[in-house]
Amino acid sequence: MAYRKILPDQAYLQACFRYDSGTGLLVWRERPASHFTDPRIWKSWNGTYAGKTAGRVQIRKSDGYAKGIVGIGDTEYKTARVIYKLMTDEEPEEVDHQDKNPQNMAWHNLRASTRGTNCLNRGKQKNNQSGFKGVIERKDLTFKRFQARIRLNGKVTYLGYFTTAEEAHAAYCEAARRLHGEFHRA
Question: For the chain, which domains are there?
């Protein structure tokens, strides 16, 4: 498992933030002086940030993936993890965005996951040539040239060969619902 920064406790987070679970908006509260070592910084901080949206969007250069980041003290955390701990007092391995939009922080869109289950929620790969997730076109075959396969826990299961990509994709979708449960994505 990759290194994860441990978040402050839930009471501290509740003193720092106000969260609207419907919109996903995380806002800085006016923070108590006990959060700061210097009273001048405390007054300045509250004057600048209290009542404003917390965090920023960080965009990964390699693929344009945008994730929310919020700084608490000298440490930056993923906004979704902060919200999850704020709401549940739990720190799952990862927090998954059900709609695949990493900027949608509405509570109904967030769920606890592991690295493995979070990967199940991905769409088709960029280099997919069949147009369907879980389907490979075998150009070396003339009949039943679309192969369906699914991966779970690092193991690939072959689901068969089909005449059309749509038939192969239907087999993939049925297996994904059965094997991936709530994390399946067609």
Answer: 10-119 (3.90.75), 124-180 (3.30.730.10)
